Amino acid sequence: MVTMKAAIFVEPGRIVLDDKPIPEVGPLDALVRVTTTTICGTDIHILKGEYPVHRGLTVGHEPVGIIEKLGSAVVGYEEGQRVIAGAITPSGHSHASLAGCHAQDGCGTRHGWKPVGGWKFGNTIDGCQAEYVLVPDAMANLAPIPDGLTDEEVLMCPDIMSTGFGGAEKAGIRIGDTVAVFAQGPIGLCATAGARLKGATTIIAVDTVPERLAMARRMGADHVIDFQQTDPVREILQLTDGRGVDVAIEALGTQSTFESCLRVLRPGGTLSSLGVYFGDLRLPLGAFAAGLGDHTIVTTLCPGGKERMRRLMAVVASARVDLKPLVTHRFRLDDIERAYDLFGHQRDGVVKVAIIP
Amino acid sequence: MVTMKAAIFVEPGRIVLDDKPIPEVGPLDALVRVTTTTICGTDIHILKGEYPVHRGLTVGHEPVGIIEKLGSAVVGYEEGQRVIAGAITPSGHSHASLAGCHAQDGCGTRHGWKPVGGWKFGNTIDGCQAEYVLVPDAMANLAPIPDGLTDEEVLMCPDIMSTGFGGAEKAGIRIGDTVAVFAQGPIGLCATAGARLKGATTIIAVDTVPERLAMARRMGADHVIDFQQTDPVREILQLTDGRGVDVAIEALGTQSTFESCLRVLRPGGTLSSLGVYFGDLRLPLGAFAAGLGDHTIVTTLCPGGKERMRRLMAVVASARVDLKPLVTHRFRLDDIERAYDLFGHQRDGVVKVAIIP
Amino acid sequence: MVTMKAAIFVEPGRIVLDDKPIPEVGPLDALVRVTTTTICGTDIHILKGEYPVHRGLTVGHEPVGIIEKLGSAVVGYEEGQRVIAGAITPSGHSHASLAGCHAQDGCGTRHGWKPVGGWKFGNTIDGCQAEYVLVPDAMANLAPIPDGLTDEEVLMCPDIMSTGFGGAEKAGIRIGDTVAVFAQGPIGLCATAGARLKGATTIIAVDTVPERLAMARRMGADHVIDFQQTDPVREILQLTDGRGVDVAIEALGTQSTFESCLRVLRPGGTLSSLGVYFGDLRLPLGAFAAGLGDHTIVTTLCPGGKERMRRLMAVVASARVDLKPLVTHRFRLDDIERAYDLFGHQRDGVVKVAIIP
Amino acid sequence: MVTMKAAIFVEPGRIVLDDKPIPEVGPLDALVRVTTTTICGTDIHILKGEYPVHRGLTVGHEPVGIIEKLGSAVVGYEEGQRVIAGAITPSGHSHASLAGCHAQDGCGTRHGWKPVGGWKFGNTIDGCQAEYVLVPDAMANLAPIPDGLTDEEVLMCPDIMSTGFGGAEKAGIRIGDTVAVFAQGPIGLCATAGARLKGATTIIAVDTVPERLAMARRMGADHVIDFQQTDPVREILQLTDGRGVDVAIEALGTQSTFESCLRVLRPGGTLSSLGVYFGDLRLPLGAFAAGLGDHTIVTTLCPGGKERMRRLMAVVASARVDLKPLVTHRFRLDDIERAYDLFGHQRDGVVKVAIIP
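^ inputs. structure came back:
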């Protein structure tokens, strides 16, 4: 049996590199040889046992690679093509997917809708922190990489760019908007870049890590606030002359950031939530205007599918946004356990790591 | 000095009918002689002291009447015309109003946005449970009543029809949607009617008062659930074969109804909240899909202004919806204290009362 | 070789019933035994040679039937299930389809977008006026018929209901709108019904055939205009007191109806075009307000895919709209040439015919 | 009687500077002393008699100035404040304005909607190429200039920035879109800048004047096409690999540019039209996909009102876009006839002129 190296969830606290069989290719699948991948904040939650996955699963959901083998029913691609696939891999043919809600794809379920059902890699099927990854519904998910773009240049497309931009898009940001982005980790930084891309005029980024605040400025923030130096709610209200922001983006997943978003929102404004939460959330009566503020709260799970990936790679190719600085560290797949250690503890100013099998 | 009768908030627990001067008419105002008005659930909160207004204020925000006198700068109307004005009276010229968010009108504030600022009648200025009411920014707010419509036929337009329909509209209900409406008071009944008007295919109404459940069927509900007989969350999931609803409308203002809305919502669905809350709200982690369910939560304060009123009266004239059955009781203005007593205690199957000065 | 009966385009002027092999089932396909189908106005254009298709093609794109055989890669269905498929059969995995524009699906093309590419049945692949039809991308297209609905009740879903409703939906009809629908053939009648479903308050239907005008009233029209008795533009402007309509729907495909739509549109209004045109169109300078009227013109090709079909059958099941009266005549497949003759010449008050293999 | 200098339309071919009384200030008006204004392409059409206005009218609709005197009913402003007003001055209280369609404001008409009714300055009331201008409905229209911005920096806000950006906004440009902009006059250049602001990834600008093509690059175009050197339709289809653009913006007002927009549009794409036309338009059958291409055509008249102006000045203040290079020439009001001559003949690489009273 032919085997490959893969990063496997063994038990809470342990993701290890081990041998696994190279997967069989079904009629709608594609086998992709991974050339670059990365670690996501969600993977750290998996590692810690905070987000449950079954033992023995290969983790990782951000693949860049080369088509090794196509399923018998897959047309329109060639083996040897450089491709990416999104973290979310919709079937294209579920009810959710046909309704345009690809991330809640419930292919195989009775109704075709399943919460978070579109997230399969490293969640419900083997992921891509491995030498090979099997891409399901390949025709809906394989996105050829445009000539001239490197692996690292498109490495943010599968997840954080799609998620971060998605938060700006779903908020309906308009030309002239004032936008606050709470937390400037990889997702928040992409939300900052996305807000700029959508025409926000005044972007206020909140974090406390100096490298991240500096990076936020590179991504398009006009103001940065260190929440340990000053109260961001008061500061933002001051910056907006008491009016509040048109859009507040939550990019961490805590009560504190969620609530602060609501507190800085103008009447009629939109709170766009990107974080993964680990407890109930509270909507304070006053900040929520007793339900009378014409507020909108939207949540976004990473948009996926090959058309989304094509668009994001077009953004990269256009040089409108340069996300390369986000990749601060590089590791061989063989060293992935060290990469988890560094990334999980956010040491050494790490933003994103590249993993090269 | 010429005086009139008006229902005045004296202190928590006491709204009394008393004499007040007929107001002076400013250049942009219109004085309207009230011919019919009604009592709103919000007025009961004011009566109980749960929603604070200043002592001496005339309450009421749903006027039907006749133009008595126009301000010097008001053109396009004639004295003697039959008109209504919305519960929300936008200025038309504030930043909020020009942005289309009339209910958060902040005319007179620095920025032109103020939470709930569009609600003036019986809140920040004298209301219409009186013989006369002064309509501010008359050109933006006076809506002539089409020939052939009676006072009672248009009495629901200023508030509950606008609010209830608004909840259905802001939820973006589409043809073929399944919609649950929690609570079938006046607002909830109008939300039910609004959901039907927008093309919802399966409408599930929840309440416990038999008269209200029966009225819900008249307004367009396909299923009604008595929440004291059965668990509405379980019942709705069963009715939708486990899938959940596309849209859930909250029309009461409690944690329980809000939370139930979230629990019956499919991934990617919309919770449209109409209730006025009196405490913090909680978003349970699971029902909120940890923030990953592509959910939308929208709140709506009654849309106002003369164009909105014109549209709602057109709906009445078209006979698409018949809201007349909602008016279950009638009182003279002189008897308004009795009307408050009946309506406040929801006695005798009351839905809405008509008050005739 | 096993053969079946099929209505085949031979040459302009001739569609004949002939024998054809029953198709082979590919891995993603499903073979459906047709139990009921119908003839579309577009089929008449094909018959006349006005819309070109290749000779030997089986025509027809509105199938109701029973799954006979599933492709090897198709899961989630069972042979023997009663199903429909839309006239438009998106792949689900093309760029167009993943972008939600299923009707312009370009599966197999370089870019995944192709004008009218989603329309395959009786256009680019064999259609369903036959004993059997092969449904491509079965998992994206087969929609099980809810228990209790007859073939005829769902026969309008695949095309005219989807198209007609689509015209109302894409126009963004809002509660209180005034809508004019030009031409009350099957598509126009469904647009009238769709406008009502979306909350239009005043619906004005234009045609000249008395049966169609009568049917228009049943579908929800408030006013009907016989364009041979009166000038519909003048009449509509009169009915709207000079203001014009919020939305005008074109449902025929001629310069005259298109132009009339524009002439009755208020500033800021939307022209929703459903017709298939056979020549260049002209936008008269005045009616188009020299390009300064904030007008919107949208065109809609029949929305397809199983989620769309599910929603439309839900509308049928809800009894919100009763389209059964549209089926005025019934024929055996053996008599389809007579059916074409009757339908093509619009004799005997025909609206739609049911064809039963 | 106190008089002022004003540029007056005398007859086709003649706009002259002459004396006029300084206008009386009504209760809702404000008198503004003009400090800078400019000439618009539309003014040239007026000059030539192609767009009819009544003789004796003061032309010009792009005012920057200082509040000289406020009407008796105007609150929230102070005399001496630096302000701009949009080219379009909505009342705020008409039906059109309350519906958010400020440019079709019909204040004073029976229904409150009037084609192009929001455009008053230099069209239906005296304009701002004068020492003073009377701003109607001042509370809806006066927008204070943020500290630190010069007259010239905000001079493009009242019209071309609002119009050009409006074309990009109404087209619903999304991150990753490919956009073509036909004609790079002042409006087209602003449409190019607006497309960039909204997240377009590939922007293709078409013109033939070298200075304008160079300016287009500064405004954000990725590709420029000189239509006298090459066929822009063929070139754009080549650049997009045969797919066509997501959005095409027309910024001139001719059959040729309008038609080219349609020819380069992908199925499902949007044509956003900004030009003022002077004859009927033709939609070629093929380019319009016989009405089956799911195309959208939108037209936009310059959005106005103080909230719009506030947002645009915020864009200027943010330095996202630098429109100062568009002002290529400066004239004293006394020399306005020379300015018309230069601008009307597009001599000397002129893009926009500043006129200083």
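The domain at 161-299 of chain D is CATH 3.40.50.720 (Rossmann fold). The two ends of chain D are 20 Å apart (CA to CA).
thumbs up if we can close this ticket
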